[in-house]
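Hey team,

Sharing the Phosphodiester glycosidase domain-containing protein run so nobody has to redo it. Sequence (410 residues) first:
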Amino acid sequence: MQDKPNNSCDGQEPLPGELPPLRTSSRKKRGRKRGRGIYTAIAILLACALVLAVWVNRDNLKPANISEWVQTQMLGIGTGKGYPVHFNTENVMTRNFVSSGKDIFFTSDTAVRAYNSSAKELFNRKHSFSEPVMKVNGNRILVYNLGGTGYQLGNQLNTLLAGNADNKILGGAVCANGRFALLTQADGYCGKLTVYLPNGQVAFSYSFSEYSPTAVAMNASGTHAAVTAVSASNGVLTSVIYELDFNSNKTVKPIASYSDTTFLDICYTDSNGVLAVGDTQTAALSAGGKKLSAYSYGDGELCSWNLQRGGAVLGISKFHNAVAGTLAAVGTDGKQTAVVQVDRAPSSVSRMGQVMAALCGSKIQAYSIAGGGAAGTCSVGTNARAVALRTEKQAYILDVSEVRLEGLKA
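Structure output:
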């Protein structure tokens, strides 16, 4: 008689009348080991991601910064009396009306103020500048006196420092980490860039000998600056862009030049390139300083703009004193992403997410920055002076004597 083959572990089918073979526990053990290995790998990846996040945000995780963040969040808790907010005796310039973090910041001829979406006052600080210009980045607010020497740096909690530049101020920029820069006139030079640490100490300076600086931007970490400058020779107007490394004291040459334009504003883009808005064109440079596209206004006249890391929104009139106008979105590569013809020349423009908005007469008109499809509208009256989008569906409106929060309807 032949021995019956053992089917318990050789993978063969059971004979008729036999029960299915029992499996050994070795496969279960191997399965458990594989499961533990997967969980271990996931845990290691999560730990690496946490370490990387801590390293990238190491400056923000300092005890002082954590304390400031907590206090700022506490400041925003609670509700106000609702909009509108009135300021009958103050004059607010449209350039000093900025939405940041869904709150509204604005600087009048007497004070710097901020309110949340329920009109709760976050702060209200007096200043004595005759020509104030406000720059907001994260929780840092820089206000300087254009054509004067005074400046002050603050957050939502306090004025952190105040001082006077050595000469008349031409422009400025601020980083979220508190570093800031001022462009000033300079004896014997066309102008000077001075970069300050958050405590007010000078970290870097550079004097321009060939071109007069017009605007400055700093990268996110505050280690580099892009500066626009202009010069006129034999009736030819030339604008240039400088790239400055704060760790180098070498004399630098412009990385790009443009004819027949004056740059009014500049910023670093999400791709670490540069985007500059001029009176006749908006130009883009790559992170390596290579010229990309430039969006020309043709015969149009620039009447408003909004410049952010993700691109520019431009309000252009058809020609000088024209009634109708154009609303255009320009990407970080300098190429047009949307253009819309509007009945009234945009006197103020804004951008939030994928939506751009323009104040055209007594209406706010909003469109997609990707193609120009309609995104909403609202009537704001004939006294409206500026728009600042809070979200893609809400907009802060600057009126002659008040600030309002309006919804955009499709």
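The longest helix spans residues 26-56.

Ping me if you want the raw files.
A.
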